[in-house]
Specification:
It contains 4 helices and 10 strands, in the order βββββββββαβααα. It has an 8-stranded mixed β-sheet with strand order 3-2-1-10-5-6-7-9, covered by helices on one side. A two-stranded parallel sheet has the order 4-8. The longest helix has 13 residues. The protein is elongated and about 55 Å long. It starts with 30 loop residues before the first strand and ends in a 5-residue tail after the last helix.
């Protein structure tokens, strides 16, 4: 597996890592690029920019997943919180998508639970433009942006950072499960064994010290 950091520059205190998200083959007429730090979505056809939108993205505790995905589902009227349209992504560890919102004041901020929020009239336009199978690239670093420390992770958390930790633990011989981005009991056990062997508190929680011992922070 290969971890895709999707960053124009590596953050100074984050090591370039190895494992995770599958590369999506170039296909289709349109592609979408999302830049969470800039709250920006760009729709392209080959190298030509077709549309640019301002969006809301995940907050630091529930970040928008970094990587390359595809739109695998399109739906209408999921409820007021999701606006009039939903374009679902094939993120391995949860239901993430591009959708409208009943909180237009959140657009241009880190306010979602990981999905990409658009103004309702914008998502109506996008829905008609973008076909199923379209590639969506979300840029950033798996461990978060340079303005925030990496998340503390514990059982129940999900995300690319969980998947990265699982992969490192697996490479080191501590984790025997699937690196799927879901922090479950098998990951907790692996973390505790790693902590024991490195003279750390054996609580199964990923802290800055654990990230550093795993070689994910410099």
């Amino acid at each position: 597996m290969i971890i895709i950091l999707f960053s124009y520059a590596t953050h100074r205190n984050r090591a370039v890592a190895e494992p995770s998200l599958p590369i999506v083959a170039e296909q289709g007429i349109y592609s979408i690029d999302i830049y969470p730090e800039r709250h920006k979505m760009v729709v392209r056809t080959k190298d030509k920019i077709v549309k640019t939108y301002t969006v809301a993205v995940g907050n630091p505790t529930t970040p928008t997943p970094v990587g390359e995905y595809q739109i695998i589902y399109k739906g209408k009227n999921w409820g007021p919180s999701f606006g009039p349209r939903w374009l679902g992504l094939n993120v391995p560890w949860g239901a993430y998508g591009i959708h409208g919102t009943n909180r237009p004041d959140s657009i241009g901020s880190h306010r979602s639970h990981g999905c990409i929020r658009m103004r309702n009239y914008d998502v109506l336009e996008l829905y008609e433009l973008i076909p199923l199978g379209s590639k969506v690239t979300i840029y950033g670093h798996v461990l978060g942006d340079s303005n925030h420390e990496p998340r503390r992770l514990a059982e129940g958390d999900v995300g690319g950072d969980v998947q990265l930790v699982q992969s490192r633990l697996k490479s080191a011989g501590y984790f025997r499960g699937t690196s799927n981005g879901k922090f479950r009991s098998d990951t907790t056990l692996a973390v505790k064994h790693f902590q024991r062997d490195h003279d750390m508190q054996q609580d199964g929680v990923i802290t800055a010290e654990v990230y550093e011992k795993l070689g994910l922070l410099e």
